[in-house]
Amino acid sequence: MIRRLLVLLFVLCCGPALADAVRLKDLVEFDGVRGNDLVGYGLVVGLNGTGDGIRNAPFTEEIMSNLLERLGVNVAGEAYRPKNVAAVFVTASLPPFARAGGRIDVTVSAIGDSKSLLGGTLVMTPLNGADGQIYAVAQGTIIAGGIVAEGQAARVVQGVPTAGVIPSGARVEREIDFDFTTLHAVRLALRSPDFTTASRIETVLNREFGKRIAMMLDSGTVELDIDAAGMRSPAHVIGRIENLTIAPETRARVVVDQRSGTIVIGQDVRISRVAVAQGNLTLRIEETPMVVQPNPFAEGETIVVPRTNANINRDPGTGLAEVSGGTSLSELVAGLNALGVAPHDMIDILKSIKAAGALHADFVVN
C-alpha cells in the first residue's frame, strides 16, 4: 500500500501578547452598509460548437425561442438544433449605495451540458433581487478561466471552462431605497464575536471622541450614538472611525482538513502534559501470475496460474512518548514533532488528545 504524502502546516495566529492592530473596518460590518445579491437567467451565444445539447437542455430552446419572438422572429414549430448557445445563471453583488448608471461585475455559470463558455457573449439579462425587482441588466463578452483541447479519442480540460466573469458587465438600473443620513445610531457587528474585542472597540471609540458615544451590547454588537458624536452626518462619523486600529482577541482553535492533511494550530492552543503511543499496520498484496504453455506441437492450451503474496507488517510506531504541557506555540509544535509521525496520523493523535481532555482549544474538522 503506497500512502500519499500529506502536508503538515502550522500557522502562527494572533495571540493577546503579540496581537497586531487591525483596522475597525476589517473587524466589523456597519449596520446599513451592506451589499445585495442579484441573480438572473440568460443566454450565451457565439460559442464554437460547445453549447448545450437542445435535447438534454430543453430550457435552452425555450429561452432562445422567447428571446427571438421578442425581437420579432417567429420560430414557433420550427426544428432547430444550434450548438453555439448555452443557458446560464448570472450572479452579481450590488454594492452599498450603488447609483443608477453604475457598473458592477457579474459571474456567468452554465446550467446545461455546455462544454465551454469560452468566447461566448451574454445576451441582455435582467438581474433580480430577493424582492423580485430588477436592479441591474447584464450583457457582454465572457472571460472564461478554463482551457479545453480535444481530439477524436482524447480530451483535456484545465480549469473550469463552464464558468466565467464579465468585468463591469452589468449596469445598475434601480437604486436601493435607503436614506443613511436619517440614522441616529449605527450598530457595529463583529465578524468574529468576542467580548474582549467588543470591549476594546468601545474603549477606542470613546477615547477617539473624548466622550461616551459607543456601548457594547453583546459579544457581537457595539452601538454607536451618532447624535452624541456631534458630527454633520453618519457618513462623517463612519469615515472618522473606520481606520481606527484595534487589537482583536481570538479563541484558541485547532483546524484540520482530513482530505488534504492540513493542520492549523492557533498560538493560544495549549496541551496539558500527556503520554502518546502510536503505531501502524501495513497490508501489502502482490499479484505475480505465471503463464504456463504446452510444449511445441503438443496438445494442450495455455493457462495462467495465479500467484498471490499477501503479508501484514506492523510498524514499530513511536512507543509511549511524552508531550509536555506547552506554554507557547513553538514548544507545542516541538512536542508534537517529537512523535515523528505523518500528518494524517497527527490528526488522529490530536483527536485522541482532545478526547482525553488534554487539548484546550476548539477542535474543528473540515
From TrEMBL:
It is found in: Bacterial flagellum basal body. Keywords: Bacterial flagellum, Cell projection, Cilium, Flagellum, Periplasm, Signal. The keyword rRNA-binding does not apply. It holds the Pfam family FlgI. Residues 1-19 form the signal peptide. The basal body constitutes a major portion of the flagellar organelle and consists of four rings (L,P,S, and M) mounted on a central rod. HAMAP family: FlgI. Belongs to the FlgI family. PANTHER family: FLAGELLAR P-RING PERIPLASMIC PROTEIN FLGI, FLAGELLAR P-RING PROTEIN. Assembles around the rod to form the L-ring and probably protects the motor/basal body from shearing forces during rotation. This is Flagellar P-ring protein. It comes from Pseudotabrizicola alkalilacus. The lineage of its organism: Bacteria, Pseudomonadati, Pseudomonadota, Alphaproteobacteria, Rhodobacterales.
